[in-house]
Structures are given as structure tokens and as C-alpha cells.
Amino acid sequence: MTYTTHTLGFPRVGLQRELKKALEAYWAGNIPQTALLETGRQLRHRHWQWQQQAGVDLLPVGDFAWYDHVLTTSLMVGNVPPRHRNSDGSIDLDTLFRTARGRAPTGKPAPAAEMSKWFNTNYHYLVPEFHAEQAFALCWTQLFDEVEEALTAGYRAKPVLLGPLSYLWLGKTKGVAFDKLSLLPQLLAVYQQILQKLVAQKIEWVQIDEPVLTLDLPAEWQQAYLSAYQQLQGSGCKLLLTTYLGGIAHQLDWLPKLDIDGLHLDAIAGKNELALTLAAIPTHWQLSLGIINGRNIWRANLHELYTELAEIRQTHRNFWLGTSCSLLHSPIDLQAENGLDPEIKSWFAFARQKCTELHLLQRTLCEPDDQKILTLQAYSAPLLQRQQSIRVQDATVQAAVTAIRPEDAERNAVYAQRAAAQQIRFQLPDWPTTTIGSFPQTSEIRALRRRFKQGEISLQTYEQGLQQEIAYAITEQEQIGLDVLVHGEAERNDMVEYFGEQLTGYAFTQNGWVQSYGSRCVKPPVIIGDISRPAAMTVRWSQYAQSLTSKPVKGMLTGPITMLCWSFPREDISRETMALQLALALRHEVQDLEKAGIGIIQIDEPALREGLPLRQQDQAAYLNWAVRAFKLTAAGIADDTQIHTHMCYCEFGDVMPSIIALDADVITLETSRSDMELLDVFHHQAYPNEIGPGVYDIHSPNVPTVEWITQLLQKARQHIPAERLWVNPDCGLKTRAWPETRTALSNMVEAARLLRQ
């Protein structure tokens, strides 16, 4: 047996974020498109080479995307909204960027496509738009060009396709209501053309991703799978149906009837039901096991895995070894981390190391002997040693979690009483204006932080520079006319990393970048042990900002669920326990902010929906402890202290009762790209507290006009009473420049003024 190894995808951005830098340089007009294309070509070849050198047999091709792989699929099947196409109706690379950002170096600006979270990850995808008269056609040749590129270079290519059913599921209908499944026959005709072109390129296996199989699918969608894959099977390619991010045992009453050649299972997220699934699937299918975790950075226990795989091969002798999902969610190379403590570093494995883990398992399964097994044991030893590390366990933290009482998570009064007390304290006008927290992280701010980290300036000089930036942000906001101000977060590198650096139980990387969307990359910290707060984290910066103005300044915190979801978590304790540890640490910060005179405190939870389990049967338990963690953070303060929270792009309907249960005084949302459609669910479920629907799409360089903002707010008023509406951007302004920020916020304030009249 050969036990073929493969990955489901590899990180795109580059070890030094080369793709990010090239994209932003192209968008700014600083490099030609040819230079951008060359950067992409170099990255693809480097990543193929690295995987091959590590021992990966089948290399993913088509996992590279200029912005997002769902958007790439939309272009491939010709599904581009007319507002984003070129004037002659054609599609090119700038069309892709116009769809994603609302603007490209060429062509007329237009509102960008809606963005949403990719299942339960922090990756964002561009939501396909479907119309009743939708037409699909094969229009974008990127996949075939890259396949040819890989084959010419001598690589064994496995093209990666987003499956047709998952593509339809992820999209939204626009205009006249209709059933998305009615588009399937026409879409399948295009997929058949795609597969036929791959056959002509001498491709044997195609990875066709269908992650929606992990969800609870309606019966008509299950039936659609059976007919769709029967139609695709005649293409001549072998189809490896790929599932990930969860198990699929709940589909076993019909899934074994699929006309496919192979099936990939996520043996990490679906581990508890793996045996049941293996017993049910046809023996003639090529089995692929995702046994290396593509979503976390912990080194695999290869000796334990080898034992488990040795048992599986007793009944399934010919299986492939793969990553659980695409390595898109993992940093690239652990060897680039020169600043990590050696003990902590020995616990980790990044994308390149995960490829090596596949190879080590492969060679031991193929020709097991004592030396190879000893190698696996030696590789796994640091994980066993970690169990005894003093960096991991903290008895004081564990006792504090055990001592939490139900009343610790409750405010003293109900919302109506709190709102009355807060109105007396703050005397805010109707349609109060504010921002979400961050202001532009200018080159001067980044240079100041870099010089301090490199030891070129003292702590005193660094903090004086930050005070100047905060003072500038306060002055700008007062001149613009905002009602509730923020200090601008000049001191923060990232909304999670900044707090993690001041908590115990965290570790940090230098180059552990992960793509969130487009050119946006984050560097998630790693939860390695029990979490506590040694000292106040934000109080002095908020207090300094408040000293500069008579207007209220919000204290800005990242909530416990987002701290958890946007970190690489531990795997030896539950997510609930980590969330409660974080909640207790942040609770102390909330109380200290209040003592310092900060009357409005924003606790951001953009990841609340992201952490939701994919199966409905598992969701209630998660939502119960997630809400409890947020309320534990926010409780224990006076009635006239106002709690805000913020949430990013997601399907709020899935978690609406829990959003209500959070009992935040004000919630701000990203709604501008959806044209306020996301407020429908808040209206229908009678959201009782105050809402700030975003009216300024900060992910686009387009500046909204007063008329545009006014129209959006008038739509919002149809869903939410005006006396409970706030006016704010979609998200933080960190990635924007001051000129566009100043103009957009001035327009926002003017729109609020007009509405008050």
C-alpha cells in the first residue's frame, strides 16, 4: 500500500505576506498588473515546491485566490453582478476586485458584494448573488491556467473546485423570490464543461469541495446531491468529494448512494463519528482521511495517530492521508519563528510542518519498523511533556471558574431602567453618532511601534507618541461632530493580539499570519495555558482620552468569545472553560474602566456567530455558555454604565435569541453591504434594545454620500424605532486613510443631523 498523501489547500498570502503587499500596491496604482501576476506565480510555485519537498504526493491546484475562492468560483461560472462588470460586459481581474472591494484600478466604482463568514472560521467569503433569470457560463480560466502551470513545472496536480451545491447554498437570491435549486441544472452544465477541460489536461483526480454536507440539509437538497453527482460522473475525471469542518454521519441514510469515486472525511472535527461513517460508506470509494488538523497549530501526536490508522487499515486497506481541511487556516512555517521559547515552539506545527507529519505517517504505514515507530514517538514526546509544564496549569484560575455563580452574569436592572439612567447621564441626541473603535493605523503609528519593538526609542518616547495620536483622534472627532468618541486604538496591533499580550496563558508568533479576507491578514495568538489578567490593560489610555474632551469616550474591549475564536485554542480543555477564564479576566477590566470614570464600554463580539457549531443539535449548548461568558464580562457595574457590543458579517437569524439574551444596551452591526436586509430578523424577532446598523462600508475605499447614508438609515427606521437607532460605520477604521475617513464620517454626521430635523 502506498497511502497517497495530499493537502486540501495551502496558505496563499506568503510567508512575508507577499500577496497582501502586492495587492495593496496594485490597488494603490504603485505597481502594474503584470507585477501582481508575477507575485502570484512565484507564490504558487514556491508553495507547490514546499509541499512536494515535504513528501506530499498530490498537490492542490486552484486553491490560490486573488481575494477569495468563492469569488473566484463566481467569476469562473460567469456569475458577476452587472454593476461590477466592465462597460462592455466582459470579466477580468479588475472585475474581481470591483466585486470584492467596490473599486478597482480600472472601471467605475460600485457597491461591493456582501461578505460573510466561511462556516465556523474567521475566513470571509464574497456572497454570490443569484437572480431568477440567472445565466451561467464558463468565463474565467484561472483554474485551467494554473493547472497547466503546475503540470508544465512537473507537479502532480489535483485541481480544487468548490462543489456546485455548496456554491448555491452559500449564495443569496436577489429581486423576485425563487428557489436557488432551480438554478442547479444550468450550473451543472458549466461544471461539466469544467471537468471536461480538466480531462483534456490529463487530470486524473479532482477535489470537489462540498462542506455544506456537514450542515443539516433539507430533503430536497439531499436529493439534489444524488442527481447532481450522477450527472457529473460522466465527465471522465475521478471525483474526490471533500467534506471538512465537521462530520457527516447524519447524511449516511442517503450519502452512500452518491455516484462519486472517493470521499474525504475530516477525522479531526468528525472524529467522534468516524467509525460509524467508515462502516457505512461503499468499499469501492477511495477513502481519504483528514488526520492532520488544518485549523490549529498544535503538533500532531503521530504515535497515537499511527496506532489508530493501523486499526483502520484492517478494514480499509487503501486510504489516503490528508489534512482535515485546507491549510489556509494555518500559518506557513514554524521555522520562521525565531523568537518563540524553545519549549513552546516544540508544541507547534505550521503548514509546512503539517505536510511533513503526513509524510512521517505515510512512510511508517507503508513499511513499519521499530526505528520509524521510535521516530513517531520522539516527534510526539513534547506533547506528553507539555502536560506537566508549569506554563499550562494555574490552580487559582481554575478555582475562580469553579466559583462562578449564576447571579454574577446578571445586570442589576432590566434594559428599560438602565436606558433611562443612561439618558440622564449622557444626554445624547436622537440618532447618536459614534464609530466602532479604531481609527487609521497610519505609517507614523506603525513606525512608532516598530521603532519601540526594535529598541530604537524608549518606553517614555513611545507612550508620548501614542498620546499625541490619541489627542489627534479626539480633536478630529470633535471637529467632525461625533456624539460618542473613541480613543482610536493607536496602541493596538490587533484587537485580539493586543489583549493576549497582557494576559497570562498566551503565546505569540512573529510570522504566524493567516488570511481573513483579501489582503487582510491576522496573526492569531495561541492559548497555551490557563488565562488571567495580571494588571489593567486599557484603562490609562481610555482615561487619558476622556481627559481631553467633555464628550463621552468609549472604553474598547474584545469580548471573551472573540478572544477565543480568533486565537488558536488549547485542545486539552473545553472551549467553554477557556471562554469563562477569559470572561473573568475581562470582567476585571470592565470594572476598572468604570472606576476610572469611563461610562460607555464596548465589548466586541464579532465572532459570536462564528463559534456556532455546524449541527443544530449542538448549538444550544454553545450559545448558552457563550452568552454566559459575555454577560459575566459585562455584569457587576452600575445601571448608568452603558454596554455596547459589535458584531461582524454573519447570518444573525441563526443566533437571534442569543443576541437578545446578551442584553447589551447597544449593539452595532455590519449591514451596509446587505442594504439593511440583515435588520429584517431584528424586526421580526422584536429586538428590544438599541441598534447601530453600519452605514459606511469600511472594507471598501468608496466614500458614502450623505444621500446614501440617509437612505440606509431610513430603511433601518422601517425595522427599528428611530429612538433606538444609532449611526455608525460597519466596523473599525484601522485599514482606512484619514482623508476618506474624515469625509465619510462628516457625511455620516450630516445625515444624522438631517434625520433629527
Main sheet specs: 8 strands, parallel
Rounded Rg: 26 Å
Distance between the termini: 77 Å
Number of H/I helices: 26
User: Strand pairing plus helix content: what structural class?
Assistant: alpha/beta
Mean pLDDT score: 94
Can you tell me the CATH class of the largest domain? Alpha Beta
Low-confidence stretches: none
CATH architecture title of the largest domain: Alpha-Beta Barrel
Residue share in helices? Answer: 40-55%
- Strand segment tally: 22
Keywords: Amino-acid biosynthesis, Metal-binding, Methionine biosynthesis, Methyltransferase, Repeat, Transferase, Zinc
Catalytic activity: 5-methyltetrahydropteroyltri-L-glutamate + L-homocysteine = tetrahydropteroyltri-L-glutamate + L-methionine
Function: Catalyzes the transfer of a methyl group from 5-methyltetrahydrofolate to homocysteine resulting in methionine formation.
Active site: 699
